[in-house]
Amino acid sequence: MIQSVAFIGLGAMGYRMASHLPKHFDTVYVWNRNFDKAKQHAIEYGTQAVELSQAVQADVIFSCLPTSADVEALIETLNIKSGAIWVDCTSGVPTSAQKLAELLKIQNIDFLDAPVSGQTIGAETATLTVMIGGDTEAFERALPAVQAFGKLIKHVGASGAGFAVKAVNNMLMAVNLCAATEGLSTLKAHGVNLNEALDCINASSGKSNATETILPQRVMNRTFPLSFALPLLAKDTGIAVDLVRQAKLSAPIIGLTQSLIQVANDTAESNSDFSSVVKMYETWSKITIE
Ligand code: NDP
């Protein structure tokens, strides 16, 4: 039985994910580096803003930070409750999950890598997809807490498997975004109306999340709203490329896409949304996707 839960890292995702926990659990601790956000969360959702040392006394401890390096640095400093389960919702590095799972097991703490997909809207509506790697028994014990914000929740394998699935998923999204941008630039160069073209593609076999959602909702309307930062996508595609290298596979599309995302990230203005990858293409082609 889970008596208490905690959420560490109230960013674009974490703030919204943690908002659902008080509907299911009486004791919900929250902590954020900028502590004002934790205090605000407590006022808004009835959670308890506490010191980090208290947050890690919960039965289930969620984290959602930018990188695995951030999670490792935090865990190193902590005295976590014996018997707790640490559920890391960061989009992280598989080898880091394996390392943390081994390290924490010695202290009788389970570590699950549990990255999420569905963007901030999915966090808000508790409809996230959660891909979980780690011990099966720990997965089953943590499941009622994950269900507070997850809709499709899958145990995808041993430690690191969740992070691997997430990295490949985001790589596929990046591949589709680059390909769709190249396709639409070509159509515009040939004088085609892009709104009409997207309607056709989205009822045809060339459709993807890029054509159905990213281009219409972020690019064509020229809003590029910041909800998933471009450096976070570059981090994810980097993890995917490392997985390819470790498996000694040849994956030219993945390699090329990683290079494109890297250049987009290096040349973007600070605080750019991931959809700003399109702006790199627009600079090269002098064709605007609108
Ligand atoms: P944000 O940048 O919005 O939030 C990051 C959070 O981590 C903030 O609470 C920040 O605290 C905290 N933080 C950053 N560095 C540290 C540190 N060194 N020590 C302690 N706390 C730290 O990121 P997101 O919420 O967008 O993303 C979080 C994770 O979720 C990433 O791994 C991302 O790839 C993934 N993700 C994001 C999605 C999205 O649509 N945004 C969708 C799916 C996954 P502070 O407020 O003090 O800066």
Give the arrangement of secondary structure elements.
Elements: E1 4-8, H1 14-18, E2 27-31, H2 35-45, E3 48-49, H3 52-55, E4 60-63, H4 68-76, E5 85-88, H5 94-105, E6 110-113, E7 116-117, H6 119-124, E8 128-133, H7 136-146, E9 150-157, H8 161-189, H9 194-201, H10 209-219, H11 230-246, H12 252-267, H13 277-285
Parallel strand pairs: 1-2, 1-4, 2-3, 4-5, 5-6, 8-9
Antiparallel strand pairs: 7-8
The structure holds NADPH dihydro-nicotinamide-adenine-dinucleotide phosphate (NDP).
SS-derived structural category: alpha/beta
Radius of gyration: 20 Å
Mean pLDDT: 98
Bound molecules: NADPH dihydro-nicotinamide-adenine-dinucleotide phosphate
Q: Which CATH class of the largest domain?
A: Alpha Beta
Strand order of the largest sheet: 3-2-1-4-5-6
What is the distance, rounded to the nearest whole angstrom, between the alpha carbons of the first and last residues?
52 Å
Unreliable stretches, pLDDT < 50, 5 or more residues? none
Count, helices: 13
Number of domains: 2
Coarse morphology? globular
The major β-sheet equals: 6 strands, parallel
- Proportion of helical residues: 40-55%
Instruction: Give me the strand/helix succession.
Output: EHEHEHEHEHEEHEHEHHHHHH
By CATH, the architecture of the largest domain is named 3-Layer(aba) Sandwich
Q: What is the strand tally?
A: 9
Domain 6-phosphogluconate dehydrogenase NADP-binding: 5-157
Active site: 166
Family: Belongs to the HIBADH-related family.
Pfam family, one: NAD_binding_2
